[in-house]
Design a protein that fits this description.
Helices cover 18% and strands 28% of the residues. With 110 residues, the protein is an alpha+beta fold. It is rod-shaped.
Length: 110
């Protein structure tokens, strides 16, 4: 009877342990241009939480399911624009200069 339990555990262990194999090393995820493609579930390992705001990238929602988490983030994009021909050659017309900014805050729940 004990042998069957050990065999069953050996068969189910890869499913319980997740998709990471013993020879694979889990690394910290990279920030991508398309933020919705990021997967911060690797931060369930406290050793990978090395950056100052990692506690906002992985907020566990369930102690039973480590893949159920909330991830918070923000993006700031800035661009400077200048139009040299705003007056089309008319004298004493100042150049158009402006700064375009976009600030986005996002939350992802998995």
């Amino acid at each position: 009877m004990k042998r069957r339990a050990g065999l069953g555990l050996a068969v189910l262990w890869p499913l319980l342990a997740g998709s990471v194999h013993a020879d694979e090393q889990v690394t910290r995820p990279a920030i991508k241009a398309n933020r919705w493609q990021e997967d911060w579930s690797a931060l369930q390992n406290p050793a990978l939480r090395s950056q100052p705001l990692d506690n906002l990238k992985y907020i566990p929602l369930s102690s039973a399911d480590p893949f159920s988490y909330l991830s918070l983030g923000a993006t700031l994009r800035e661009r400077f624009e200048m139009n040299d021909a705003s007056g089309f050659g008319v004298r004493d017309v100042k150049r158009d200069r402006y700064l375009i900014q976009r600030f986005q805050v996002h939350a992802t729940c998995t």
